[in-house]
Amino acid sequence: MTSFPRRRESRYNKNVASETKTCQNCHDPFTIEPDDFAFYEKIDVPPPTFCPECRLQRQTAFRNVRSLYHRACEAPGHSENLISMFAPDADIVVYDQKYWWSDAWNPLDYGKSYDFSQNFFVQFKELMSKIPWPNVVSTNSTNSDYCNSVLNHKNCYLVFSGIDNENCGYAEQVDLNKDSYDLKKAFRNELCYELVNCNECYATSFSAFSTACVNSAFLYDCRGCTNCFGCVGLRNKSYYIFNRQYTKEEYLKKIGEYGLGSYQALSATKAKFDEMRLAYPYRHARIFYSSRSTGDVLTHAKNCHSCFDSLGEAVEDSRYIYHPYGKPVRDCQSVFTLSGGERCYEVISCRMCSDIICAKKIWTGHRVKYSYNCHNCNNIFGCVGLRDKSYCIFNRQYTKEEYESMEPKIIVHMNAMPYTDAIGRVYRYGEFFPVELSQFSYNETVAQEYMPLIKDEAEKLGFTWRDPDTKNYRVTKNAEGLPDHIRDVTDSILEETIGCAHEGNCNDNCTTAFKLIPPELQFYRKMNLALPRLCPNCRHFERLRKRNPAKLWHRSCHCAGEKSENGVYTNTGTHPSHAKGEPCPNEFETSYAPDRPEIVYCESCYNAEIA
């Protein structure tokens, strides 16, 4: 799906006024625009009753990537211990993924006739609990058992949602990285550490939103920089420290004052850099090569609204899209993680799909509705775990004529007998799966990363919560007892169980303790990096906090003419958007909330100062 057919024109009257509705989940108002109505008419679904943010929360509560457990394989004749994304007490059947993908079992054996006396979602949940599920998603990977949602990995540990990574650890949403650790949304990096949204960097650490930088550390929004340290907004520079130019000789002498091998010195540098970053303007949105689009971290977008985190492929005529990647996406709404799609609505974790409504993990499909974990399937409704099938309902095979007769009857039935969840939310045709159908607790899923909650808040919203498992280990080395400098760390550290500095007193799924693996220790020594004091989960959530939420606020440019609005930053460039000395009149949609401390400039003012 590399090209799009001519778009079918909607019959909907685009001059109709927008409509404000009240979300049945959060009870806040949200607006449905004329273009939204046109899309809903095109795919023949009613308007949503959940606001966009609550739709995202509900979808992501079905996606667990990073929470792993030990669980026995339940395939016939098998009992081996598996690494699984499903907890041992989850009420489902789990097979080793290789067995699951084999022809040793038939998903149609679990098929059932549709019962018009029962609610659709009740029947679907029953099917989900009976049919087997693969323990993890890992294809063509070597020595990478503790990874999930990965392809072509080699010697990786706790790497999630990635392709073609080698010798990496503690990373998520990463592709083509090598010999690197602690990454979030990073691509084509080597010998790097603690990166967030960085691409094509080499020997670079503690940096965010930077590209093609070498032998550097503590960078923010830098491009093409070599031998730079503690810098913001630089382009193609060398030998800078905290945005000040040095000669090569001066730089090499000065940089010795900021050794990253000492944890004490590293902590002081982090604090200094975090303070320094707030003295420079920020681009209101990271949108590039795009037109008529809003969102953040978005490239090659056209006519898109509230879209986030694209990976370079075209995204067109779409709204509320999160993580489109790999292949173009067009004419879609309310989607989380999609690689190649058209006319998809309320879907999550799908690839190469068209005309998909309310589904999860559909890889290559057309005209799929209310289905889960189905691959290379067309014209299916309410199915789980199917492969290479067409015209199936609840995993039962029908003829084309039978299917086309049944489908509209089921839709009518879903509206006539809606599902009402434990807190009174009503689900008819067109709404994504109720939260009770998720096999995961809220704090196991991506939802906790996007919209973090505490246990009481999650349970009030109808989500389940997984309390920490009872630990059967003893901490042998507290975080404060670790050597300050990496040069003083001996191999005996590999035998220690290190207590996380958070000690479980956080909302970051803290494991309370962790161990180092031999390649990781070798990496710290090679890169002269102090040992971490937090467990991998807490480090992951710290990286997440360096990214903005997938949400927009309407704000005004902070450029007040000669200086920023707060008087901290003095302008140096010529701003074409306004007369010299006059405040900028531009307004925009931004993922920086009004209470954030950053200086936020419109694109014109930002480019005049930084680019």
Sheet bearing the most strands, described?
11 strands, mixed
| Radius of gyration, CA atoms, in whole angstroms | 25 Å
Distance between the termini: 35 Å
Low-confidence stretches: 1-13
Q: How would the global form be characterised? A: globular
Category from helices, strands and their pairing? alpha/beta
Strand order of the largest sheet: 7-8-9-10-11-12-13-14-15-16-17
- Determine the mean pLDDT: 95
What is the tally of beta strands? 35
State which percent range the strand residues make up: 25-35%
Please, could you describe this protein's structure?
The protein has 611 residues and is α/β, with parallel strands linked by helices. Among the domains are: 479-544, no CATH class; 552-611, no CATH class. The chain is built from twelve helices and 35 strands. The strands form ten sheets. The protein has an eleven-stranded mixed β-sheet with strand order 7-8-9-10-11-12-13-14-15-16-17. Strands 20, 22, 23, 24, 25, 26, 27 and 28 form an eight-stranded mixed β-sheet that branches. It is globular. Residues 1-13 have low confidence and may be disordered.
